[in-house]
Amino acid sequence: MTEHAAGGEEHFAGSNKLFISVWVWLLVLTGFEVFLGYIHLPVVYMLTILMGASIIKAALIVAYFMHLRFERLNLVLTIVPALVICICLMLLVFFPDSFRAKELRYEGPVQPPAESH
Amino acid sequence: MATEAEAITGDWGGGVHPYRVGHRKLGMWLFIMSDSLTFSALLIGYAYVRASNVWPTPFKFYPSIVFSSIMTLVLLSSSLTMVMAVSASARGERSKVRKWIIATAVLGVTFIVLHSIEWKHLIDEGLSPFALPHEWAEKWPGASPLFGATFFGITGMHMFHVFTGCIYLLIVAGRVNKLKHEDVEISGLYWHFVDLVWMFVFPMIYLLSVDASK
């Protein structure tokens, strides 16, 4: 078990072919997302599928382009769980209150938004 | 040979480098963690005001969606050229590293130019951080003027990251002979992160506000 190879050949796992195929997958998922924008789906499904696709894309970028898949498990465990927990905590506040706020939406008479004072 | 202690400590082995990365790289990862929480907070805040207000869905296929899709393609491609730079750097081919990094920065600048044009379309329509264009206000009665604030805030924050990324990359390209492989890799981490953020900004800001009505 050598610590960091000194000079010369550095370790960087993953072939160019692998990176190109990851890139193609990212493009395919992006194309799918744009297509999704033009078929009429209820916004909840739309949001769920879009976020699902985006999380897959983010995972591909982090794992292969940012190389995290080839790093030590220690590093992965330091970075990923904390982030996931923090974001879930933010969503925990977001979800219930956004539904409450939705009920409070102003649906009254036509009124241009405040743009000049 | 394998003692119980080795089995427990796994591939770390209790050495002085628990992560097997340099302190700079660890620092960049920690920065990325904090920055991704910044963007999460911005995007969740946006989702909150969006869910609780009447929200315009103004983005027409041309120019907005065409531009933003091309911008996504450009940014994804710049990530690929960045990976090529890092993998050339691992093989010690410095001149190739420089070329790939410059290609990445050029794609980054392309992104900024395209995004500025896209901003200008919307500004010309009358969108500002504090007000909607009159037409939108008529089409979506009671719509929240926060549209402009969140749109310019989030995409502007992202564009600022692309801008600083371009400067960072050009400095790395200029100093590539003096830098270690890991330094090139670290600049790649930052760049891929900027790309990653756009993977959330693009669907949440653009694709959820597509004007499919023609």
Distance between the ends of chain B: 71 Å
Average pLDDT reading of chain A: 82
> Number of helix segments of chain B?
7
In N-to-C order, the SSE pattern of chain B is HHHHHHH
Class derived from helix and strand content of chain B: mainly alpha
Oligomer: heterodimer
Distance between the termini of chain A: 69 Å
Structural category of chain A: mainly alpha
- Radius of gyration of chain A, taken over Cα atoms and rounded to an integer in Å: 22 Å
Q: Helicity of chain B, in percent?
A: over 70%
Strands of chain A, count = 0
- Helical fraction of chain A equals 55-70%
Which overall shape of chain B is indicated by the principal axes computed on the Cα atoms?
Answer: elongated
- Helix tally of chain A equals 3
Structural summary, described in words:
The complex is a heterodimer of chains A (117) and B (214). By secondary structure, chain A is mainly alpha-helical. Chain A is built from 3 helices and no strands. In chain A, helix 1 packs antiparallel against helix 2. With 214 residues, chain B is mostly helical. In chain B, 74% of the residues lie in helices and 0% in strands. The longest helix of chain B is centred in the middle third of the chain and has 32 residues. Chain B is elongated, with a radius of gyration of 21 Å. The mean pLDDT of chain B is 91. Chains A and B meet through helix 1, helix 2 and helix 3 of A and helix 2, helix 3, helix 5 and helix 7 of B.
Descriptive key words:
heterodimer, A: 117 residues, mainly alpha, flat, disordered N terminus, B: 214 residues, 7 helices, 74% helix
What does the secondary structure layout of this molecule look like, with pairings?
The complex is a heterodimer of chains A (117) and B (214).
Chain A: H1 16-36, H2 43-65, H3 73-103
Helix pairs in contact in A: 1-2
Chain B: H1 4-9, H2 23-51, H3 61-90, H4 94-125, H5 134-139, H6 146-174, H7 181-206
Helix pairs in contact in B: 2-6, 2-7, 3-4, 3-7, 4-6, 6-7
